[in-house]
Amino acid sequence: MENCKYFRCHNLPESQFDCSLCYCPFYEMCKKQKKYLLFGGYILKQNGLLACENCTYFHRKAIVIKYNQLLKNGMALEDIFKFFTDELEK
After folding, report:
1. How far is CA 88 from CA 26, 47, 51, 71, 75, in A?
2. pLDDT in tens, 11-46
């Protein structure tokens, strides 16, 4: 982590922080399905890009562990995304 030029990209305690999903695998799905507000992101109006600096969800150790379990069990990325968004919408 210390060698990453982007380290401390999110304000999470180091004990909870996991950089494994540095580039979010759900970026395009989140933007397309307008789920970014669930995770704390927003659209930059001037260029339409998704701003994710307030999204810490996929940098949390427990979430990364669950993501890896679901992926290892053969779940498709779209289904994993739905799993997490469904959890947040409850």
Report:
1. 15, 27, 19, 19, 19
2. 777 777 788 887 788 888 888 888 888 888 878 878
SS3 51: strand
* Alpha-carbon span 59 to 56, nearest angstrom: 5
Average pLDDT, stretch 52-77?
90
Three-class SS of residue 78? helix
Length of the chain: 90
8 Å CB contact between 42 and 54: yes
Q: Are 18 and 61 in contact (CB under 8 A)?
A: yes
What distance in Å separates the CA atoms of residue 51 and residue 48, rounded to the nearest whole number?
9
> Does the structure show a pLDDT above 70 at 1?
no
Q: What is the pTM of this model?
A: 0.80
